Amino acid sequence: MPYQDINIVLLDADLKEVRQAIATIQQKLPFLITLNTTERKRLFKMETSDSHLCKRVSMQHTAIGIICPPVLI
To answer: How many domains does the chain have?
Structure first.
């Protein structure tokens, strides 16, 4: 799936603030881990049919506002 180019301009102050926020997240949630290449390759990947289902559910949720009828909840 190709990605469109993303153009963004961040001021130095904004970039510093973003980095501080990331550092705060890493400090508050130390159990988050970084996966190496081998670990990432072993992760379950979504199949094409699953991807289409997710897109359809997302479109329905956007259009109707619910994923499943209230009767089923």
So the answer is: 1
